[in-house]
Amino acid sequence: MHGNRKADFSKLTGSVNAGIATPYAKASQKAGPPELPRRLIYLGELLTTTVEEIMIIDTDDHTDFQYIAVSYRWPMYLSKNQQLDEGTRDAFYRGYPVSRLHPLYADAFKVAAMLGIKYVWIDALCILQGTDQDWLAEGSKVASVYGNSVFTLAYGDGPDQPDLDPGCPPYHESCRLEEAVRAASRPFLQGKLTQFDRRNPEALYSWLEANGNFPTRPEGEIDKRGWAFQERLLSKRILSVTKDGFFWDCCSLNAADCRPLGLRGDFSPKFRDLEERRLKTLLLTGNVSREVALARDMYLLWRRIIEKYSHRNFTHNRDRLVALKGVVQRFQTVIKEPCFLGCGKAMCSGRWCGSVIRSWTAQT
């Protein structure tokens, strides 16, 4: 506990590799055959962990691609030559220098290369921008894209960055890999150890909490974004890059760079991580626990999902329904009947269905 956290980052990498080998690799099979994205980013043969050139490829309906998906906030300044569109498509399919892309994408390629994964999915590079037809086709598969990835690399938010115009309010930038590494390199304890009454449980808890013994993933702007909701909920495994370090979440384990073997207990706000794990297990495996075995319990569970989702922000409000499509489909599989806004026949009786509809219309 008194050592430097940097040494534990390699252990976290081991935990990631171990987590990838968990049975949840096949957890989503009950929801139907895997639906791959039309395109993936190919990193090359990975002779080193430095990726200098990438290439966009068509998957051609093959199902043997192992890839990671990236969940992030779009950078405020993303130039046209850093997106896939009609003007850049030929260049990306021939091969494109990583040095010309946003640094966030280069970070994602580095993480994939460190783990020996040759393919990455990033929406800005794998969905043809500026065309409604491709967006409708690929956007509707987003839940499957994240659900079938080896894991999702989720970028939390770093410190506020000043805008180019001093009169504008500060905005959030996604955390860079180097920021997370610096955070993971900080020692657990700094300065002198404070004295406390070891016979007093509250004093012991306060001392442990003050010295970083209860790490939890910090919340940021990405936790307010609409599309990120199902990206996170339907991902089998998530590696979060944050200003406080690295955090790993899956159906069986929560870990951090300072606790690579797992976190004991849930110290997240309002038991966020525990509830997310329960929802994830239900949606990905279809295994109904005793707590939600009854129809009314399933309704309450769905109600909690809607309440959380209704507070998310969208750049375009028209995305509000399609950005939850994957969750609705998985929930329909769990209750084994068609859904209306996520509610099955038994749940669509007057008061219940009405309350769900009101929760939607209040936002739209």
UniProtKB/TrEMBL annotation:
Residues 67-231 form the Heterokaryon incompatibility domain. InterPro entries: HET. This is Heterokaryon incompatibility domain-containing protein. The lineage of its organism: Eukaryota, Fungi, Dikarya, Ascomycota, Pezizomycotina.
